[in-house]
Amino acid sequence: MGRNTAATVPDTAPDAEDVLLARRGRAAHLTLNRPRALNALTHAMVRRIDEALTAWEHDPAVATVVVTGAGERGLCAGGDIRAIHEDARSGGTASAEFWRDEYRLNARIARWPKPYVAVMDGIVMGGGVGISAHGNVRIVTERSRVAMPETGIGFVPDVGGTYLLSRAPGELGTHLALTGTPVGAADAILCGLADYYVPSPEIPVLLAELSTSPVREALPHHTHQPPPPGVLTTHRDWIDHCYAADTVEEIVDRLLATGIQEAKETAETILTKSPTSLKVTLRAMRRARELPTLERVLEQEYRISCAALTSPDLVEGIRAQVVDKDREPRWSPRSLGEVGEGMVERFFTDSGGRGCLFT
Asked: Which catalytic reaction applies to this protein (predicted)?
């Protein structure tokens, strides 16, 4: 079995049990363990994950890292947005410090030198995408619901989400970024957010095999079934046409002009999101396409996220969706036409070295 390197990871923090570490043969297991909060990430969890990866990277007895979520609902619903809400309301800096470490962890996962098996079962949103979709072995199931829903809370896709979505086929990524629509297994694979489909009943068997077998040998035994059909392929024509527009306003106009019911419903969905977030997201996606590396995109996202802390829409969006749950956010500005160029550009301005995550 080899020595248990999990014991070398500091566990003195009171919330250390929010991330469970274990060794099973040649595989090291990392389990997000806040099921009542749908395994939402805290700063302490991010640090603990990073410490575990440091220990396992240099342990020759660890051949594979496996990431799962506790409970039945999903891997991870994202960051702890209640904490972000309180921080933004009070004008604090805790969220910026959290994002700095989280985004660095996202980049580290993308460069991880060993198989990093992310089991994207159930709900995988926001920060959950960040700790899974940058891995090199990304597994979805028939239960998977993968999304970057940030525009609905007055935020912008982060954790490398604009990097991943900007590299999806055609304009599918733009569609997902603006609407926050969750996708299932087939569409997650199509968009480059996942690699393999494994039916959920087979996941425990696969993980047991990884304790004794390399990923390349164990995985093919469980990937022989096709995923349930997706929906994005059937909508590619109108998605690619409409989202190729230069502005959010024109995207909405094109969607409404198609005469297609699904496109009309999509336009209506977009118009419920934060107007400022929509415009910043579209610009972030277009710029991300031109940036050469994940690290450069994460630096752009960090600037945007820090700017969002001082935007009224972040506090209001979380209030409406998570705190009060009235689902009636009062955005400021209230319409796309009121969001001026200067208001968008301020999200991309590096103030106080906020863009220097990797230098």
From this structure: 3-hydroxy-2-methylpropanoyl-CoA + H2O = 3-hydroxy-2-methylpropanoate + CoA + H(+)
> Total structural domains in the chain?
1
Q: Give the model confidence (pLDDT) of 54-68 as tens digits.
A: 999 999 999 999 999
Confidence of residue 1 (pLDDT cuts 50, 70, 90): very low
Residue 15: give its domain's CATH number.
3.90.226.10
Sheet with strand 74-76: strands edge to edge: 74-76, 123-125, 145-147
CB crowding 105-125: b at 16 or more within 10 Å, else e:
bbbbbbebebbbbbbbbbbbb
The answer, as to whether pTM is greater than 0.85, is: yes
Task: Indicate whether 359 belongs to any domain.
Answer: no
Determine, yes or no, domain membership for 358: no
Does some domain include residue 200?
Answer: yes
Residue 259 lies in a domain: yes
Residues labelled catalytic: 79, 127, 150, 158
pLDDT digits (tens, 9 = 90+) for 162-210: 999 999 999 999 999 999 999 999 999 999 999 999 999 999 999 999 9
Give the integer Cα–Cα distance in Å for 92 and 97: 10
